[in-house]
Amino acid sequence: MVETQEVQWSELQRDPRSVAALADSGDVRLRRRDGVPLLLMREDRMTAASEGALAAARTLRNVLTHLSAEQAAEALSDEFPWLALLPTPDLPLFVRDFVKAAQISAELGQWGVLAQTLREWKATAAVYADPALARDLTRPLTDDHGPVPGPEV
User: Fold this and answer.
1) Cα 79 to chain centroid, rounded
2) Residue 119 and residue 99: Cα distance in Å, rounded?
3) How far is CA 111 from CA 33, 55, 90, 148, in A?
4) Are the C-beta atoms of 11 and 32 separated by less than 8 Å?
């Protein structure tokens, strides 16, 4: 595991060579007073991480494709125990969405896609944990609540 060292932004401005030397041995977190810290890493380590994530996502997709939906859901439930709250017919949908989001994330290097998918499914599981809420949210709507406002830009 690569160690992450922290330095202040001002240290990078004052002595960039020593900060670059730190980045040669590991990642460097640049702390700033006015913003979220930045991460400085060598390009070769970033490329290797991206390639590794893509290979892992493809391997996961292939493994899950060869399992039945029930087996795939059971395998993923070790990491996501809240899957036990989802209705059985939803488990294959979760597996499909998980694999697709992992593949998209790895291809684009944007892991927020997978994180969002997991947040949404976890929120769905939380709804099913409350039977009254699940009943209210899954019943057909019969009342007319008027026109739906357009999205805000």
Assistant:
1) 13
2) 15
3) 26, 14, 23, 32
4) no
Name the DSSP class of 6: E
- Considering Cα of 136, then 137, then 143, then 149, what sign does the dihedral take? positive
Phi and psi, residue 8, nearest 5°? -80, 150
The amino acid sitting at 49 is: A
Contact between residue 4 and residue 29 where contact means Cβ atoms under 8 Å apart: yes
Q: Are 28 and 41 in contact (CB under 8 A)?
A: yes
Least confident window among 9-18, 70-79, 112-121, 138-147: 138-147
CA pair distance 70, 83, nearest whole angstrom: 11
Angstrom CA distances, 40 to 2, 18, 34, 57, 103, stand at 12, 13, 17, 25, 26
First to last CA, the chain: 43
The token duo for 46 is: 């970033």
- Pull the structure tokens for residue 94: 């979760």
Angle between helices 91-108 and 112-129 (to 10 degrees): 160
Q: What residues have CB less than 8 Å from 68, skipping those under 6 apart?
A: none
The token pair at 119 is 């947040």
Single pTM value for the model: 0.71
**63 in Cβ contact with 51 (< 8 Å):** no
